[in-house]
């Protein structure tokens, strides 16, 4: 608009500015000098924002396009041509992502799933698993992974090329992180993650697991090469040698060599994460109710409210197996165990009989006696 009134120099300057802006928004220039000031000015900011400028730019671009379209429609209305342009932009920025990386790769999907998880209880399946179960793998994981499946070597490519969870993600290999640990990991960024890998590797080597230790200490590119060889020779095993998945074919090992994990391995890890989270939450609820029931009995309080909570717990978790519910036998065994624990406590601490005698002897030796009572 108004280009005919500009000089050639002004046209070149304006074209340069537009080109730089478009390049930045399309992530052609995601580098430290184009990152936000917070990511440049402080050491903590540089650590926390490492590799995340790309994610912030993608989300900014999505919301900017959305806000621009809404503003234009509100002020001027959308013509047929503008509607076609908006549809093409939407398809270009989301349709191709969905085709390649599935619905899970769309940027806004990760945001909506994160919001949904805020309202889902820890003893329920998370939004990612619920979405995947509803849509099925081909639609949720995308075309590239589906093609690799048809080729006989299904590879988890969607998690690497998708554009969701670019700022905050979950660790499918760690089930028990607290909120404090999550915050420290976010602030420390990839640098802290790599330092943690080195320390974990050193601990493995100290405990005699030399191969695992070296693997943990290597940079990601070389770690993938070593892991590919381990998957080829022994499959995916836990640190104590129990199998997670095995029988990887040559194609899956080759793609792991290039940095893409076999889909059956990542699927197993994701299922383990959800199952362990649910198991931990249900067990914690069960232990809390049994403890409250024991305390009420011991103090002579009314147990009616606690029994109602137990009935509600059983109704909610009846589909998770007999170990998840609280039966009369469960209550009886728990009450006996609590009673035994109370009898064997020493100064509020539970000890084995041998250690209890040792603690008593140590306490007798350290008890204060006036000087005139000493021999």
Describe this structure in words.
The chain is an all-alpha fold and 375 residues long. The strands form 2 sheets. The protein has a two-stranded antiparallel ribbon. Strands 3-4 form a two-stranded antiparallel sheet. The termini are far apart. The model has no long low-confidence stretch (mean pLDDT 79).
Alpha-beta classification: mainly alpha
**Could you spell the SSE succession in H and E letters?**
HHHHHHHHHHHHHEEHHHHEEH
Helix content: 55-70%
> Numbering strands along the chain, what is their spatial order in the largest sheet?
1-2
Number of helices: 18
Radius of gyration: 29 Å
> Termini distance?
105 Å
- Detail the poorly predicted runs: none
Instruction: Specify the overall morphology.
Output: extended
- DSSP strand (E) fraction? under 5%
Quick one: how many beta strands?
4
Overall mean pLDDT stands at 79
Largest sheet: 2 strands, antiparallel
